[in-house]
Amino acid sequence: MSARIHLPTGWVTFVFTDIEGSTRLAQLLGPGYRPVLAEHRRLLRRTIVATEGAELLTEGDSFFLAFSDASAALTACLTAQRALGDHEWPTPEAAPRVRMGLHTGWAEPRDGEYASPEVHRAARVAAAAHGGQVLCSAATAGRANPLPVDASLLDLGLHRLRGFDDRERLYQLVAPGLERQFPRPRTADAVAHNLPIQVTSFVGRQAERVELRELVAGHRLVTVLGAGGGGKTRLAVELATDLVEQYPDGVWFVDIAAVTDPGLVAFAIAAVLGLRPEPGRPMVDTLVEYASARRMLIVLDTCDAQPSACADVVSRLLAGGNGVRVLATTREPLALPGEVVWRIPPLSVDPSPDGTESDAVALLLDRTTAARGGREPDPAESADLRRVVRRLDGLPLAIELAAARLRVLSVGQLAERLDDVLGTLDAGREARVPPADPDRADGQRPADRGAAQTGATVPDPASPGARSAVERHLTMQATVTWSYRTLGPRAARLLRWLAVFAGPVDLPTVEWLLGDDPLDPLSVLVDKSLVLAEPHVAGCSYRMLDPIRAYAARRLAEAGEEQAARNRHVAWSKHALERAHLGPNGQPVTLSLYALDPLAGELRAALRWCATGGSARTGLRLAGGLDQWWRERGLAREGRLWLFRLYGRLAETGEAIPEGELAAAYHMHSLHAGADGEFAEELRYSQRAEAAARQAGDAGLLARVLAGRAAPLVDMGQFAEAERVCREVIDWAYEQGVDSEALFAVLRLAELLWRRGALDEAAELLGAARPVEASRPVDRGRRSVDMLLGMVALARGDLVAAHEHLLAALRSRMNHGFHGRACDTLNAIAVRCAAGGEPLTAARLFGAAQATRAGLRSASGIYDAYWTQQQTALRRLLGDVVFDEAYGEGSALGLDEATALALGVEHPDLAADSARFSARPGGSGPGTAGTVPRQPTATADRHTGHA
C-alpha cells in the first residue's frame, strides 16, 4: 500500500469483499478467469475512487477498504454491485457474484495499517454474506445517514459471528438493482437441525433405538428398510433427535416424498442446507463441495419415491468427504457399496419379563386413550387389546387404524371383527408394497405415484407361493390384497376409481364418479376398512389411507381404466373449481380463496394427469382457476412449475389451443414470476401474453394483459416508465370501452402516485375505481381500493380515514383468504398505530406481518422501503430492546391472532381537535405528517362494494 494513501481515523467503516465461489469460477473459466478478475477489480476500484475510500489490501479476488463515512461506504458497495450486475460479462456463467460486509468502529492506523478487533468483526460480517449481498453491522447502520437514494436496510436480526461471543445485529442493503432473496446469513448460530416436531408420543422401540444408534455410529450409510406402516420415519426422526449434539454441522431432515422429479433430489437436500444454485454448475456438485468438509447427518426420508436419484446423490455425498453420514428410510435398498440395510421389526407383542405391557399394547393403549378423548380403556379390556395387536402382527400403522376404530367400537367388538378377517386370510402372503407412503398419515403424498412408479408385483392369491407365506409376515399390503380379492365387481371398481382422488370425498362426489348409486359398494368398502368414513355435522366424508390408495391406483392401471378414471377426475375438478366461483343461484360471487383451499390437493392431482396423460388445455384452465390462490399462499413457484409442465405437454401432443387462452396463461405466468422474484421471466411472459392477446383480437383480454405490464417495470425500479404505461393502458381501455378491464393499471397507478406524493390525484383515481372493483367478483374481496386509500390517508396524517379504510381492507382480505395482501394491511395498520401513540402494538404488528410474509416466501413489493423506514423510526423511538421484544411477540402470532390484534385497535379520537380536522391543502408523500380533507367518494362507509 502506498504511504501516500490517507487512512481515516476515529469512526472508520471497514469493508471486505470477495467473489463467492471464486475457485469454482476460475476452474470453470480457465484462461478466461484472469480478464474477469481484472474487470471485477476495475469496477470496484472505480467506486472506491468516486467515494474516497482507502484501499488497504487487494489479494486475489478480495478487497479490504476503509472509509471515513459510513454512508459513503454503503454508496460504494451499492454502486459496485450495480456496476457488476449491469456489466456485460463474456457469458452469464462468468459473472462474478461478490459478497460485501461492512462494520464501523473506532480505530486508529499505526504504521500504515489497522490493528483492531473492529477489522475482524467487519471480516466476519462479510463472511456471513452471500454472493450479490451487502451486509452491514448495526454500528454501520446507525451511522449511515443518509442512506443512498432509494435504498433501505433490512433488519435480519441478531446473529453470532464466528470468533465473537456477543450477538451482532445484521442488516441487508436493499435497493433497486440488487437481489433481494438470500438464504440465512452464514453465521455461527445457524440452526443445528430441522427435524420435524412430533405431535404424538413415541412409544417403545428402546432396543431398536440402541441397535440402530450403534449402526449409525459405525457406518456412513444406514438404510432403514421395511413395509409401509412399519414406523420407519418416526424411528429415524427419534434417533436423529438424540444425535443432534454429535454433529457440529447439523442433523438435516429431507422429505423425498415431496420431490416430484428425479432431477430435484439434489435441490431438495441443498435447499434444506441453505444452498443456492451456482451458474454453470450442477447442483449436486455444489452440494458435495459444501458437505465435503463438514460433519453432519442427513436423514433422507422415503427414498423409494425417487430411488435411483437418491442413490446417485448419496453416492456422490459419501465419496465427497468423510464427515457426512446418511440415515435413509425406504422400502427397497439403495444398493450402494458400504450400505448397511437394517430392517425394522414389528412392535413386540409379548409382555416384557418385568410384567409390563408389550410395545404394541402400549401403543394401542396410548392411541385409544387419545381417540376416546382422554378416557383410558377399561382394565377388563386388556385381554382383547392383546388379541388385537397379535392379529395385527405389531404393525404400527395397523395399530393406529385399530385405535381410530375404537372411537365407535369396543375393544372386544374390534377383536371379534379382526379375528373374522384374519381367520380367512391366506397364510401371510407377502407382497412388495407399491411406492406409496403408508408410514405417513399427513396426506401430502401424490395419490397416483404408486401406480405411476411401482415396479412391484403382487402374487396371485391362488398361487402356491402366496399360500406358503407365514402369518407373522402379515403386512398392510397383504391385508389390502386379501380384502380386494373378496370384493364384488362394483365395490372393486369403486375402490379402483376412488384412487384418483387425493383426499376425502363426500357422498355426492362418489355418486358422480361412479355414475350410479354408490351406497351399496361404498358400504362394503367401509365395512372392510378399505375406505374410512368420517362423520361431520354436514354429513360423512370418505377417504382411503395412502397405502390403500396406492394399491388401488395400481389395480386401476392394470384394469386398463386409468385414462377414463383420471379424465373423469379432471372433469370433476374443473366442475368443483367452477362451483367455487358461483353462489347457490349459479351467479358469480366474491372470490374466496378459502373455497379453493380444500380443492388444492385434488387440483394438483388433476394437473399432474393433464401434464402427463391428459389435456394440457384443460390443465391450463385449471391452473387459471388457482391463479390468485398460488400467489396468496406463497406458492407462485409451484404455479410456474405447473405451467412449464403444461407447456411441455402442449409441445408433446400438438393440442390446439386458442390464442386467447394462451394469453391468459402467459399473463398468469408473468404474475407468478413477479411474485417469485423472477423479474426477467415476468417481463418475458408479459410480452408473450400481449402478443397472444393481440392475435386473439379480444380488447378486454388485451386490456387485462396490458394492465399488468407495469408490474415488471415496478419490480425493476422503473417507476416513471411504469406510470407512463399505466396511463396509456387506462386511456386505451377507455377508448375501447373496456375500461373496467384496466382496473389493475388503475390500482398500480394509484400506488405510484402515492409513492411520489401525488395524493390528491391518487385519491380521486381510487374514488372512481371503487364501483369498478365492487362490480368484479374476482377482485372485490381484496379491497385494494380501501387499502390504497388507507395508505393515502396515512401519508396525509389522517388517522381516522386510515383506520377505517385499512380495517375494512383487512376484514375483507382475511374473510376471503388473501393472506399475502393481508400482510401489507397489517404493516399499514402498524404505521397507523405508531402515528396514533400505540408503538408497542405497531411493533407487534410489524413482527407478525414479517413472520407471515416470510412463511409465504413473498416480498413486500412497492411498499418495502416504506415499511423499513417506518420500522426504523419506531425502533429509534422504543429502543432496540423494547422494539425487539415487541417485534418478537408479534412474530409468534399466527395470522388470525395478528388480525384480531389489528381489528382490536381503538378507533382514533373524533374530537374537534383531532388531527383529522387540522387539514392542510396539497398532497404529501409517504411518511409525511401533512393532512388534507378526505375525498367524499373515498370513505370507508360509502360505496363499500363488498359482496
Automatic annotation (TrEMBL):
Gene3D superfamilies: Nucleotide cyclase (3.30.70.1230), P-loop containing nucleotide triphosphate hydrolases (3.40.50.300), Tetratricopeptide repeat domain (1.25.40.10). SUPFAM superfamilies: Nucleotide cyclase (SSF55073), P-loop containing nucleoside triphosphate hydrolases (SSF52540), TPR-like (SSF48452). Residues 13-126 form the Guanylate cyclase domain. InterPro entries: A/G_cyclase, HTH_77, Nucleotide_cyclase, P-loop_NTPase, TPR-like_helical_dom_sf. Residues 429-468, 915-947 are annotated as: Disordered. Transmembrane segments: none annotated. GO terms for biological process: cyclic nucleotide biosynthetic process; intracellular signal transduction. Residues 429-448 have a biased composition (Basic and acidic residues). GO terms for molecular function: adenylate cyclase activity; ADP binding. This is Adenylate/guanylate cyclase domain-containing protein.
